[in-house]
Input
Amino acid sequence: MGSKTALLTGSSRGIGKSIKEVLSNDGIEIINPSRNELDLSSPESIDKFLSQLSTQIDIIINNAGILKVGQHNEFSTDDFHEVFQVNVVAPFKIISGVIEKMKQRKFGRIVNISSIWGQKSKKGRTLYSSSKAALDALTRSLAIEFAPYNILINSVAPGYIETDMLKQYNTEEELSIIRDTIPMKRFGKKIEISELVKFLCSENNSYITGQILTIDGGYVCK
Output
């Protein structure tokens, strides 16, 4: 890819950590701010980070997100605002803060890490599903705006992936049941997500934009 720099959020564990490793191995410089440096729940923190960002950014990967599980009447408006702030507003602000220089250079690659729960839902996922559907809509809309500048933006929507979060929210018995509902009868691997992200961020991807690329072993096809 040559000398490229990526801004990656949420790289401390799971899929984000795997993306960081894969891109770094491909020779891409990674800017992965800590929460102290960039608090996505705080518009002021995002503005401060962007105002101090002097490095040329060629790639943006909005991976960080939050999940709140519960019934609709267990959430307050503040919960709704927090989930949308981190999962939708923060990616929008980050993209907006970097995009003008990308336009000037006529190059940019942006990947928003979404979820299958933006396409379908299940009990307890009201806020999360709503936020990921909004993120996917943002991806489609911005793709039209950015296409004339050779800036491609896509969403990657993972299904059930082998991560700590998967184990955190499900018992072994539940994991076994979930596995049986996946047509490929297995969970995805983090590297499978990371390799897809790498391709979308590369110059090899010259025509894919505005897409929601679902990587879930066939789960949403059911």
In short: The chain has one domain: 5-159+189-215. The chain has a mean pLDDT of 96. Residues 5-159+189-215 form a domain with the Rossmann fold fold (CATH 3.40.50.720).
